[in-house]
């Protein structure tokens, strides 16, 4: 969920509150002046609006590669330019930072900061300049508080054309990922029936790109996974709204279920694009609203709400994207199990889905993309769903 400073925000916050989101990417192109001097106070009003609406921001300071061709040119800037920006924004907007003290607001603020969205799409920023700017940004943030996280804003080349080097930007920052100056990598995944068809197997997954990028970069440290954009393209063979919603459930759990090289969950957050937008604003492929005044959800937005209603307060315990295609989450009142019963996403056969029940389990609810499918009374330590139709992702909520 991305909100841009200066853009209309009422539909966005309606959408975020309706689905039950708690985080959002705050995206700005106007965060410094033409002399590359940061202007953090320009974020003050947007920060207050986010606070009042219960949304914690993830900061994104944008830099377009096309800026280098302006008259006069606006280069990305030096290590020192970005160190200053990182330090000033972190000092002002971290929890209990300057902004919080000025407004008497405690324990609210940004802990994750990113810069320069999708540099691999235009592929115009010199790789060394990008590296040095990103290193300065991370060092500036960490000079204020080493616990804050710096992340390169999203990459798209693996999704677009299978380039695991991210058109050279990945190897350019591999040392920053290896050293821990960058907490992880942000991948944008737009599933498409022709170009990235998840229906053909998990080779068309966020997990696959994450793995191939780490291998291409030669990373030994187990980095974290971020996703500030993903969606199902409602185009050509996937134009039907209900089909797109079914596929979107798989896409959600593909991103949420990312694991690292050690097999443990590695996902920090995953945001879809574009929750508040109508087809008139963002085109028919990705828009997740049917109207914006008032905001009303399209089927994919309903699926997102369903997931957050079921799992928003849960913790991912395990994920097995390479074998069974299943996940396990735990919460205060129950457990949630997820199964990708799609071709190439699971080695379970015949629609049989065995679940190990937690102690005291009394009921299992089977959920699909369109809602509750069935309810079963259970006892003992296991339960098996029989003959579930293929071509879907399922969720099973177990309560005590």
UniProtKB/TrEMBL annotation:
InterPro entries from the UniProt entry: GH
Protein name: Glycosyl hydrolase
Species in which this protein is naturally found: Shinella fusca
């Amino acid at each position: 969920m991305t909100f841009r400073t200066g853009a209309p925000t009422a539909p966005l916050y309606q959408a975020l509150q309706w689905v039950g989101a708690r985080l959002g990417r705050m995206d700005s192109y106007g965060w410094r002046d033409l002399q590359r001097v940061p202007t953090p106070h320009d974020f003050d009003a947007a920060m207050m609006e986010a606070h009042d609406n219960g949304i914690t921001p993830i900061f994104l300071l944008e830099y377009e590669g096309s800026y280098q061709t302006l008259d006069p040119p606006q280069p990305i800037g030096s290590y020192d330019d970005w160190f200053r920006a990182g330090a000033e924004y972190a000092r002002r907007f971290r929890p209990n930072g300057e902004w919080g003290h000025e407004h008497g607001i405690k324990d609210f603020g940004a802990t994750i900061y990113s810069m320069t969205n999708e540099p691999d799409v235009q592929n115009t920023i010199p790789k060394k300049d990008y590296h040095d700017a990103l290193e300065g940004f991370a060092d500036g943030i960490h000079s204020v508080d080493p616990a804050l996280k710096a992340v390169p804003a999203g990459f798209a080349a693996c999704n677009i054309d299978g380039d695991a080097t991210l058109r050279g930007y990945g190897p350019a920052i591999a040392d920053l990922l290896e050293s821990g100056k960058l907490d992880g990598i942000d991948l944008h995944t737009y599933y498409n029936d022709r170009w990235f068809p998840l229906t053909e197997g998990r080779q068309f997954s966020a997990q696959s790109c994450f793995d191939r990028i780490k291998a291409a970069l030669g990373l030994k440290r187990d980095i974290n996974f971020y996703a500030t954009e993903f969606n199902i393209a409602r185009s050509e063979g996937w134009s039907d709204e209900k089909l797109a919603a079914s596929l979107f459930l798989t896409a959600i759990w593909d991103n949420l279920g990312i694991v690292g090289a050690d097999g443990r969950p590695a996902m920090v957050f995953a945001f879809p694009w574009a929750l508040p937008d109508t087809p008139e604003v963002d085109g028919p492929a990705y828009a997740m609203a049917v109207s914006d005044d008032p905001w009303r959800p399209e089927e994919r937005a309903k699926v997102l709400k369903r997931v957050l209603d079921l799992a928003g307060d849960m913790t991912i315990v395990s994920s097995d994207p390479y074998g069974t295609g299943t996940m396990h989450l735990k919460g205060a009142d129950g457990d949630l199990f997820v199964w990708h019963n799609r071709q190439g996403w699971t080695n379970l056969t015949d629609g049989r889905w065995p679940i190990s029940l937690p102690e005291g389990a009394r009921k299992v609810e089977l959920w699909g993309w369109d809602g509750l499918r069935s309810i079963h009374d259970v006892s003992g330590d296991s339960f098996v769903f029989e003959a579930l139709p293929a071509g879907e992702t399922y969720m099973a909520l177990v309560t005590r």
